[in-house]
Specification:
The mean pLDDT is about 95. This protein has two domains: about 5-130 and about 215-230, Rossmann fold (3-Layer(aba) Sandwich), CATH 3.40.50.1360; about 140-210, Alpha-Beta Plaits (2-Layer Sandwich), CATH 3.30.70.260. The protein has six helices and 14 strands. A six-stranded mixed beta sheet has the order 2-1-3-6-13-14. A four-stranded mixed beta sheet has the order 7-4-5-12, with no helix packed on it. The chain is α/β, with parallel strands linked by helices. α1 packs across α2 (about 35-50) and α2 (about 35-50) packs parallel to α3 (about 60-70). The structure holds ribose-5-phosphate. Pfam families: Rib_5-P_isom_A.
Length: about 230
């Protein structure tokens, strides 16, 4: 799949994702480049069709993008229950729609927004589809900076090979919107993601894992044959 093709797929996903939103809905706005295409399409509908909805962004970047189209944003404080959240993902299993998310570092807020929503739809191109999680992507784990070295040791004990995430082309640690660190944990092929998520979350210092298990209702997958709809 070449870069031009990927851009085309993301634009298609943006339009279809945005078409799921109707007047007055409460909407969780995801993060990353594919979710950004949904936000742009929603922005066009806001400007050209007068679509109005209440948007809760899952990252500062998504908030800025939405605001650049004039979309009025709200918070989970004002609007704790959402009709739908639409987001990207880094890996998606064909069966069960289990996910790895967080290569962009937004996993904690994305998960909070997801669980505030009645329905969770993800938008991905077909490169992200896998039989089992862990085929291409480590599991991003958000940890508190205090004592992160000890947290890392515990993650290693449950089988992770770890890279501490740093900023692009920079030796400084990458920090999330919430000021936390990300440890990219390679567990190899993940046979039991339910168990692994529990094991990760039970470690002191771990704030959230990038495993999104049994929580996706629908995946829109762009590929050579158009957009497929997969359901859990
Ligand atoms: O933290 C980032 C998010 O989980 C993204 O939704 C995910 O990384 C997919 O991003 P993209 O659509 O840019 O591949």
């Amino acid at each position: 799949m070449d870069a031009q093709q990927i851009v085309k797929y993301k634009e298609q996903l943006g339009k279809i994702g945005a078409s799921l939103v109707s007047q007055g809905m409460k909407v969780g706005l995801g993060s990353g480049s594919t979710a950004a295409c949904v936000i742009r399409s929603l922005g066009k509908r806001w400007q050209e069709e007068g679509l109005r909805f209440e948007g809760v962004p899952s990252s500062i970047a998504s908030a800025k993008l939405a605001e650049s189209y004039g979309i009025e944003l709200t918070t989970l404080g004002e609007c704790p229950e959402l009709d739908i959240a639409i987001d990207g993902a880094d890996e998606v299993t064909h069966q069960g729609l289990q996910l790895i998310k967080g290569l962009g570092g937004a996993l904690l807020r994305e998960k909070i927004v997801r669980y505030a929503a009645k329905k969770f739809v993800i938008v991905v191109d077909e490169r992200k589809l896998v039989d089992k999680l862990g085929e291409h992507t480590p599991v991003p784990v958000e940890v508190t900076p205090f004592g992160w070295e000890a947290t890392m040791k515990h993650l290693e004990k449950i089988g992770a090979s770890i890279k501490v995430r740093v900023k692009n082309d920079h030796p400084d640690f990458f920090l999330t919107d919430g000021g936390n660190m990300i440890l990219d944990c390679d567990f190899g092929i993940i046979d039991d993601p339910v168990r692994l998520e529990k094991d990760i979350i039970s470690i002191a210092g771990v704030i959230e894992s990038g495993l999104f298990i049994n929580c996706t209702d629908e995946a829109l997958v762009a590929g050579y044959n158009g957009i497929q709809h997969l359901y859990k």
